[in-house]
Design brief:
With 398 residues, the chain is of the alpha/beta class. The chain is built from 18 helices and 18 strands. The N terminus is likely disordered.
Length: 398
């Protein structure tokens, strides 16, 4: 008699145990609307009640620098550590990113002031219902008309139209990317290569208007984390560098200004062993009935062949349900993973996987053949665990 599959005895994680993002009161999507509403920009809501309005607001987003990473590295980040108590209006609390906790989704949430259910960038890669192909929303491949994919105006555009001096200061590489167009356009884009130049120019732009909204960005903390891990000397070196950048900008704030330091997600190192890295391309059970694998290792969108969605959900929940929150599309939407229930745009619905899997444990679903680069990364992110989901909102006022 054949042995019963080992997953017959598993008890899947209850979906209501997933720590939801604080959409509407304390997520990244609520930040810019709160700041711009305080500057008198119409039709926006100050959704984060802890923040005090200012005439000049600067947001410095450090890619990959989560709340837990700052707390764990006081020696490498003495200035950031000294600001932890200022987070979220001096409550000492973090923000949440939104789901998934990944760059394309988070930057769209920041720039549009909308949750993923509305802006429509709900993952690293998602299926385009119009073509049936996977769309990489960070690299924008294959190319898709940006303002068809994300039609809402950005907060920067709304602020610029309301007479607020608006600028983005970032790497010249991002000046004309589709992600910049749909998430961060409005006012002036000013490219500078070095971090020091960005800080100096951000301070100048902040002082350039009686009301100013300035955004600046640094990516290499995330880059070193992916390549070497957040326990590496390379990553710690980047943290030390960005700590000095924040202090450099803070010391140049003009009058009536506030600097907010935040991030798009945190990061976790995943061991290179079979228990921690489950290879979809080598697992016949997980592949059965699956047409496309989207998302990323810790936040998967799974697209079933026609008629197989229920079976795929059953197998994924039985195989992975003790390590991942595994939901159907409708369950994930109703639970509020992508935004408050009832906010899902019709155009976004088909981009969500038939099955959505979010990691609970220190584990990833890799795809060694389809995603060799991503599968080789040390540091990962995407899910709703605190180390990925919680981000700082450190505050310095002039």
């Amino acid at each position: 008699m054949a042995a019963e599959p080992i997953w017959q005895d598993t008890v899947p994680l209850a979906l209501d145990t997933a720590p939801l993002p604080e959409y509407g009161s304390g997520s990244l999507a609520d930040l810019l609307p709160t700041l711009a509403a305080g500057q008198g920009v119409p039709n926006l809501t100050a959704a984060i009640p802890e923040l005090t309005p200012a005439d000049r607001n600067c947001v410095f987003l450090i890619d990959g620098l989560g709340w837990e990473q700052i707390k764990a590295h006081p020696d490498e980040a003495p200035y950031l550590t000294s600001l932890l108590g200022s987070s979220r209006g001096f409550t000492g609390r973090p923000l949440t990113t939104g789901f998934p906790a990944t760059t394309a989704t988070s930057l769209a949430s920041v720039g549009t002031g909308l949750p993923p259910a509305r802006h429509g960038l709900p993952g690293y890669t998602v299926r385009d219902p119009a073509t049936g192909a996977l769309m990489n929303q960070l690299r924008w491949k294959p190319w898709t008309a940006p303002h068809v994919w994300q039609p809402y105006p950005t907060v920067f555009q709304l602020a610029d139209a309301a007479g607020v001096h608006t600028a983005q200061v970032s790497s010249p590489t991002f000046a004309h990317t589709p992600l910049t167009k749909v998430a961060l356009s409005g006012g002036s884009f000013l490219g500078r290569l070095s971090g020091e130049d960005r800080m100096d120019l951000a301070a100048e732009q902040l002082a350039a208007g009686d009301r100013s909204l300035v955004y600046t960005y640094y990516s290499e903390v995330d880059g070193k984390g992916h390549r070497f891990g957040v326990d590496s000397d390379a990553w710690r070196g980047q943290l030390m560098y960005v700590d000095r950048l924040v202090q450099r900008l803070a010391e140049q704030l003009p009058p009536r200004a506030v600097l907010y330091v935040t991030a798009d997600h945190g990061m976790i190192d995943i061991p290179f062993d079979e228990q921690s890295r489950i290879d979809f391309d080598e697992d016949w059970e997980l592949r059965a009935g699956v047409a496309l694998l989207g998302g990323e290792g810790r936040a998967r969108h799974v697209y079933a062949v026609p008629g197989a969605a229920a079976d795929v959900l059953t197998v994924w929940r039985e195989v992975l349900g003790e390590q991942f929150w595994v939901a159907s599309r409708d369950e994930a939407i109703s639970a509020g993973w992508f935004g408050p229930p009832g906010t899902m745009d019709e155009r976004v619905y088909g981009r969500i996987g038939d099955v959505v899997a979010a990691a609970h444990d220190d584990v990833v679903i890799t795809a060694s053949v389809q995603e060799p680069h991503e599968s080789a990364m040390v540091g990962m992110h995407g899910s709703m665990t605190p180390v990925e989901q919680l981000v700082p909102l450190l505050e310095v006022r002039s």
